[in-house]
Amino acid sequence: MSLRVLIYGVGPIGALLARYALRKGYEITGAVDIDPEKVGKDLGDVIGLDEKLGVIVQKDPDKAFEPVKPDIVLHATTSWLDKALPQIVLSIKKGANVISTCETLSYPYYRYPWLAELLDNYARRHEVTVLGTGINPGFLLDTLPAILSLPHIQVDHIRAIRVVDAGKRRKSFQKKIGLGLTVEEFNEKMSRGEITAHVGFAESVFLLSKIMGLKITRVEEKQEPVVSEAEYKTQYYEIKPGTIRGVKGMGIGYSGDKEIVRIEFHALVGSEEYEEIIVEGEPTVKWRSTGTPGDQGTAAVIVNMAPRVVEASSGLKTMADFVKASYLLHI
């Protein structure tokens, strides 16, 4: 499908989205960013191409939508839907579909139920579709485990774990998990919202459960720093013994008092990378990978889903609306 796309947010992920969109044969009609180092420059120069694209990065999003209206906006600016809302609403108002990396948009009914209703109504009114997705949440710890449950006649429990080497990730990722900080500094910055570590544990639990028809009555989210016992050095940070090497976190979904879903995300400098999914039931099966690159995976999920979002019925969607192959508890 030939698509006209607008890139909203030209950070590391947005730059990947632009490059991958071009590889798919999509036409980039506009780009938006607030970084003064990028505004006013040709998008080709900003994302490191050897050619100019004739698309100037705009600070004013209204200008980026002119003179060609995009079919879809590929949005990558923030993890939080309340912060992304004005950008998404503007895109809808312009008549463009939206697919976003915003983690809390992957299942917005948990943290932002009234914003979810607002977006759904507004998207329907303008006959466009909105989806939040990515690699995590969006695929590895929610959609993929649900798909892997298909050959089971009974599912009692699902555990999905993702482990990444934080030292290989972009600077903003390393910063948000607190590399090199003391435990006290980590806790203070987390409490003030200066860093977030991973966002989206509950969203993944609810998304997985929605696809499979599991009834979740309660979700717990936990996250804690991991203190290093050795020295490490990344491209951006030095980690000394006694400082933060990474984080471990999880989301646990319960039906009544019974745990039925557990997802875990470990981001540690120097770790072996893998995903492991264990579906317990009839039968019980363990699946393990050699690790999926996060940034590249997120960009690929977005550009691969773009045509499906454009073709979908209008309104706010989740990946549960696009995935129909899984074990199904409620028929």
Describe this structure in words.
Helix content is 30%, strand content 27%. It is an alpha/beta fold and 331 residues long. It folds into two domains: 4-134 and 297-321, NAD(P)-binding Rossmann-like Domain (Rossmann fold); 143-291, Dihydrodipicolinate Reductase, domain 2 (2-Layer Sandwich), CATH 3.30.360. The strands form three sheets. A seven-stranded parallel β-sheet has the order 3-2-1-4-5-6-15, with helices on both faces. Strands 8-11-12-7-13-14 form a six-stranded mixed β-sheet, covered by helices on one side. A two-stranded antiparallel ribbon has the order 9-10. Helix 1 crosses helix 10 (294-311) and helix 4 (81-93) runs parallel beside helix 5. The protein starts with a strand and ends in a 14-residue tail after the last strand.
Short description:
The chain has helices spanning 12-23, 43-46, 61-64, 81-93, 113-125, 143-148, 171-176, 183-192, 201-212, 294-311; strands at residues 4-8, 27-32, 57-58, 72-75, 97-100, 129-132, 154-165, 218-227, 232-233, 238-239, 244-255, 258-268, 274-282, 285-288, 315-317. It is of the alpha/beta class and 331 residues long. The strands form three sheets. It has a seven-stranded parallel β-sheet with strand order 3-2-1-4-5-6-15, with helices on both faces.
Which regions have little confidence, pLDDT < 50, spanning 5+ residues? none
Question: Looking at CATH, which topology of the largest domain would you report?
Answer: Rossmann fold
Helix fraction bin: 25-40%
| CATH architecture classification name of the largest domain | 3-Layer(aba) Sandwich
Count all strands and give the number. Answer: 15
> Main beta sheet: strand number and arrangement?
7 strands, parallel
Distance between the termini: 34 Å
Number of helices: 10
> What is the global morphology?
globular
CATH-wise, what's the superfamily of the largest domain? NAD(P)-binding Rossmann-like Domain
Radius of gyration: 20 Å
Count of domains: 2
CATH class group of the largest domain: Alpha Beta
Element pattern in H and E = EHEHEHEHEHEHEHHHEEEEEEEHE
Mean pLDDT: 96
